[in-house]
Amino acid sequence: MGKLYILGTPIGNLEDITFRAIKTLKEVDLILCEDTRQTKKILSHYEIPTRTESYHHHSSPEKVEKIIKLLEDGLNIALVSDAGTPGISDPGGKLVEAVLEKFEKEIKIIPIPGPSALATIVSVSGLPTDKFIFLGFPPHKKGKNKFFEQIKSFDFPAIYYESPHRLLKNLELVKEILPEKKIVLGRELTKIFEEVVRGSVDEVLEYFKNNKDKVRGEIVIILY
Ligand code: SAM
To answer: Is the pTM of this model over 0.90?
Structure first.
């Protein structure tokens, strides 16, 4: 039986990768990537020749069956996502679930920890984060109000991922539903245009309204 490695990769800066991650990517028989083009940037940077295949949100049950068969045949496989830690708001968790369902205790699923946008923003927040809640992405349409309303009942920070296309609209909604909250917003963390914006909901909303060129990139938000 092969082993399945769940392996964290950088969220931007290619140097944010562990020695163990590079060693594992070199040694496994196959790397499953959310997007092979994305992962190939890392593989070519570190001269890793390992074969890649895609595994993503829309992968078919047949694809999962194929992966299970490869593990049964003894292949060691690493699963990576586009950025960060597989399984945190991306399809990694689904594969682990399917593999566990099939093999139960027979298979070794080995974490190779690395960065995550979630832990990265927490680390610079300056907030008491012994307790917080992570909510993934807000729903696109239905359930959006409910998503933000639930935060009213938390007396600890709530963290979520945001798309630049929905940032302004959703901040307007936060202003309406949670006007007293403050924000720590991380954008493009570890990348060239990295910024951490701190302030009241109103201040952060105004900042992005006045700097439309910054309404882009990858965003993670803490409401507290
Ligand atoms: N598994 C990843 C992790 O561990 O961070 C998250 C995957 S999720 C599909 C991608 C979202 O994470 C982005 O849309 C953005 O909200 C957030 N994200 C990823 N990289 C980021 C970065 N460099 N700066 C800020 N947010 C980031």
So the answer is: yes
